[in-house]
Amino acid sequence: MAIQKKLILDSDLLDITLSRLCQQLIETHNDFAESAILGMQPRGIYLAELIHQKLEKALRKKINLGYLDVTFHRDDFRRREIPVKANETRVPFLIENRNVVLIDDVLFTGRTVRAAMDAMIAFGRPKKVELLVLIDRKYNRDLPIAPDYVGKVVNTLASQRVQVEWQAQGNKQNKIWLINQE
């Protein structure tokens, strides 16, 4: 079975995309005094950290950043043959009446975002929740979930997958690939 890879975003274009997303967030959230960022485990945290760093540098102030694990809130949790291992949840601030930006790398079916909404309620009731994704896989949604901020929209088949490579995970450069398995 041959695997074909197509580059969606290289390191330079990805940096430009992240800068644009940060500008959009600043337009909406101003100085982030009433807002916070929650990176969705496991892969959304790398994007959340990059966005967080860029925002703090641009705004010259501390911004709340947390990690949210949705493992036990997934609707397929008990259907898996191999038990899944939970990741760290770290929300060192109150989200009650706060604007929360959920961040994930790829939006596919929407089920992980739905699980994140359930997991987030354990930390309080936010004033508003927005979704930022790097890649929006159009035409594959199982649930009526749409991102507020999108790095790039990619039309994909269900058989394809999006591979996100982060330097923070040991890769040479940050890159996004579309993988075809034939």
UniProtKB/TrEMBL annotation:
GO terms assigned for molecular function: glycosyltransferase activity
Report whether Membrane shows up as a keyword of the record: no
Tell me which domain of life the UniProt entry assigns to the organism this sequence originates from.
Bacteria
Q: Does the keyword Transcription regulation apply?
A: no
Transmembrane ranges, per UniProt, are none
In this chain the Phosphoribosyltransferase domain maps to: 16-167
**Keyword annotations:** Glycosyltransferase, Transferase
Q: What is this protein called?
A: Bifunctional pyr operon transcriptional regulator/uracil phosphoribosyltransferase PyrR
Organism encoding this protein: Chryseotalea sanaruensis
